[in-house]
């Protein structure tokens, strides 16, 4: 019952009645009943023998290719009715749908788009669509239909007046009110209207949840972009995950699609705010567990699903101090990521001249020749035209590009000061983010670039350093700091512009440590650096590192002295987590012993290894005693020991730079 006008127009479209439009555009505010109406349309379509295809705008990859992948058989199938719900989340695809996708469907296809926003003026003013598109604006239910809804939900007639007075004709509010009334959790005769009907109803519903696990499952679903059973397992526990997921699916304000289930947006916001206000400690714990699960999804997802996984992870950023960078991104689909094509070269150069000048354009020309695969191109979904690009360099050779590009040269210089790359390591640099429409600003296009960058940070193997170059340090500095990228240098440029380059040494900060510090992110304020005694620590040079190794060998069996070792300032210490263990000195000692053992596995290091092991592991009282124990002349022993020091330092420096030691199950920096 209800929505008879809309049902009539849909039936006319199904039957191909004269004057009936094959494309219906349904719009209205959140909770007004768009999804419910689409489900009724679906019942009508199936009764008419039609096949139905669903695309959920909340979960589709907002690009033409992503939409077509979800639409599937709607493109070529006969007698198909295509439903697109949550269209406001991918409304940037509207022009592409109007000009390219919809005209390619079969003549008997019927399409229903449902979203919060009305169609664009371009669509409404296009004469070619005047007989093909019908716009249906949904408002609140009239009193008779609202009462019928309560009756269908089994609400006693005596309660109708109070419920209708409280919820008006708002379908979602009526549905929730009916749930509360049937559960007997409130005296409906005493309800009075309030400014936030949904919040008041939910406060009653939440108070009647069957268990703490049900509450936590509901709050997790309100917090995440989409929720799956494995995600619930990570938060509420694997034993209860299946039961909780089934229960969530049955709630009157939940929906689901290919990526998982989701709650109505209004419900999610109210639940999330209430949980955060009521129990911040447990809220943060849920936030972190959700983030860690989504991190693993990003790491293990297929290439086709990687960006959706990163999008779900990045969604959590809207809850912390970095929210201003992410909450503005409430619409996607206008632009999609693509590869570089031959006819893009000159356009990319022109866009660079427009935004940064001729000097930058010369650098872009060089990398177009040298590393064309490093360009990520962003195109209009409507026209396919190039609107932006990112140069996302993969660097392994300091000789390439340094003569022409001072930013690349200075990055390599910074790396050289900290230690060169190992053969299996590389650097990633976002050298240019060129978007003339919003150069250097927060934008949807910039968000797509950030998703790519974040995904590659997490999924890359052998990543030693990453760099981000920005034209606006004041705007982007706080986010870079939050993401563990410190300002490394500034480069004066043409027209008075200054580029700021931020860097992260991943050899010092492995992924798991970086994630704990930055992802999903603090909820109340930016995390402050831990207090230390004396001046702040800095990364050791190789000379300082080798001196510290020799001193640590001398102090190997003196825990008090070993606790003051300069090696605790090393990258190796950060990766191994020595200071996080109960006995930091013992962890350092084990690492040194492991390094000596690894040296012993090299057949060419037999004599140097024996000199080291006898001197330091067997605790010879003096070097003369060690020489006598080995049966060597003192001068020969000293030569073997010096060679042992040299080779041991090489092993440990390899570990310092991110090389993998043989894992003995105790100290395995990664």
* Overall number of strands: 14
Tell me the quaternary state. Answer: single chain
- What is the mean pLDDT? 85
Largest sheet: 7 strands, mixed
Protein structure class: alpha/beta
Strand order, main sheet: write it out. Answer: 8-9-10-11-12-14-13
Strand proportion: 5-15%
- Indicate the percent of residues in helices: 40-55%
**Inertia-based shape:** elongated
Cα separation of the termini: 62 Å
The Rg value, from CA coordinates, equals 31 Å
Number of helices: 29
Low-confidence stretches: 190-196, 526-537, 662-670
Characterization of this structure:
The protein has 670 residues and is of the alpha/beta class. The protein has 29 helices and 14 strands. The protein has a seven-stranded mixed sheet with strand order 8-9-10-11-12-14-13, sandwiched between helices. A five-stranded parallel sheet has the order 2-3-4-1-5, sandwiched between helices. A two-stranded antiparallel sheet has the order 6-7. Helix 3 (64-71) links the parallel strand 2 (51-56) and strand 3 (80-85). The chain starts with a helix and ends in a 14-residue tail after the last helix.
Throw out a few tags for this protein.
disordered C terminus, 13% strand, alpha/beta, 5-stranded parallel β-sheet, 14 strands, 7-stranded mixed β-sheet, 670 residues, 49% helix, elongated
Concise synopsis of the structure shown:
The protein is of the alpha/beta class and 670 residues long. The strands form 3 sheets. It has a 7-stranded mixed β-sheet with strand order 8-9-10-11-12-14-13, with helices on both faces. Strands 2-3-4-1-5 form a 5-stranded parallel β-sheet, with helices on both faces. A two-stranded antiparallel sheet has the order 6-7.
């Amino acid at each position: 019952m209800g929505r008879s006008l809309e049902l009539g127009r849909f039936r006319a479209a199904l039957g191909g009645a004269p004057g009936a439009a094959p494309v219906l555009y349904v719009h209205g505010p959140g909770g007004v009943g768009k999804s419910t109406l689409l489900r009724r349309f679906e019942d009508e379509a199936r009764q008419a023998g039609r096949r139905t295809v669903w695309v959920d705008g909340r979960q589709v990859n907002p690009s033409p290719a992503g939409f077509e992948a979800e639409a599937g058989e709607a493109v070529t199938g006969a007698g198909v009715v295509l439903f697109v719900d949550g269209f406001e989340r991918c409304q940037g695809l509207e022009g592409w749908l109007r000009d390219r996708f919809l005209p390619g469907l079969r003549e008997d296809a019927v399409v229903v788009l449902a979203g919060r926003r009305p169609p664009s003026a371009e669509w409404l003013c296009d004469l070619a669509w005047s007989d093909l598109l019908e716009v249906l604006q949904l408002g609140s239910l009239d009193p008779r239909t609202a009462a019928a809804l309560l009756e269908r939900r089994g609400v006693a007639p005596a309660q109708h007046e109070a419920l209708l007075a409280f919820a008006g004709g708002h379908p979602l509010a009526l549905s929730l009110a009916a749930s509360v009334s049937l559960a007997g959790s409130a005296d409906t005769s005493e309800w009075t209207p309030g400014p936030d009907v949904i919040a008041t109803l939910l406060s009653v519903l939440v108070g009647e949840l069957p268990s703490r696990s049900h509450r936590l499952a509901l709050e997790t679903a309100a917090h995440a972009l989409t929720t799956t059973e494995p995600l619930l397992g990570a938060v509420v526990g694997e034993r209860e995950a299946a039961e909780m997921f089934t229960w969530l699916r049955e709630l009157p304000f939940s929906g689901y699609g290919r990526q998982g289930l989701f709650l109505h947006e209004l419900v999610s916001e109210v639940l999330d705010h209430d949980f955060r206000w009521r129990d911040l400690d447990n809220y943060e714990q849920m936030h972190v567990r959700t983030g860690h699960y989504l991190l693993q999804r990003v790491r293990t997802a297929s290439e086709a699903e990687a960006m959706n996984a990163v999008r779900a992870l990045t969604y959590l950023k809207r809850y912390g101090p970095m929210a201003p960078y992410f909450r503005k991104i409430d619409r996607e689909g206008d632009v999609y990521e693509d590869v570089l094509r031959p006819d893009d070269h000159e356009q990319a150069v022109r866009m660079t001249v427009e935004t940064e000048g001729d000097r930058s354009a010369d650098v872009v020309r060089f990398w177009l020749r040298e590393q064309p695969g490093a360009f990520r191109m962003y195109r209009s979904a409507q026209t396919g035209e190039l609107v932006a690009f990112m140069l996302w360099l993969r660097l392994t050779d300091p000789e390439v590009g340094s003569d022409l590009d001072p930013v690349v040269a200075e990055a390599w210089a910074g790396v050289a000061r900290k230690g060169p790359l190992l053969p299996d390591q590389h650097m990633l640099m976002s050298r240019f983010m060129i978007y003339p429409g919003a150069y250097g600003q927060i934008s949807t296009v910039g968000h797509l670039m950030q998703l790519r960058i974040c995904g590659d940070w997490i999924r890359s193997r052998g990543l030693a350093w990453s760099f981000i170059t920005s034209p606006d340090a004041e705007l982007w500095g706080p986010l870079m700091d939050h993401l563990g990228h410190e300002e490394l240098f500034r480069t004066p440029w043409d027209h008075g512009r200054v580029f700021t380059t931020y860097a992260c040494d991943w050899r010092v900060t492995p992924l798991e440590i970086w994630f704990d510090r930055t992802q999903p992110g603090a909820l109340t304020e930016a995390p402050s650096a831990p207090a230390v005694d004396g001046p702040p620590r800095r990364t050791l040079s190789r000379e300082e590192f080798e001196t510290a190794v020799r001193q640590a060998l001398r102090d190997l069996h003196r825990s008090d002295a070993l606790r003051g070792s300069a090696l605790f300032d090393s990258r190796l210490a950060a990766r191994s987590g020595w200071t996080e263990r109960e006995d930091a000195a013992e962890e350092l000692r084990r690492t040194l012993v492991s390094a000596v053992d690894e040296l012993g596995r090299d057949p060419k290091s037999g004599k140097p290894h024996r000199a080291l092991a006898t001197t330091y592991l067997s605790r010879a009282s003096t070097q003369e005693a060690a020489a006598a124990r080995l049966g060597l002349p003192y001068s020969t022993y000293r030569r073997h020991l010096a060679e042992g020091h040299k080779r041991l330092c090489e092993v440990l420096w390899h570990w310092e730079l991110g090389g993998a030691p043989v894992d003995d199950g105790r100290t395995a920096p990664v």
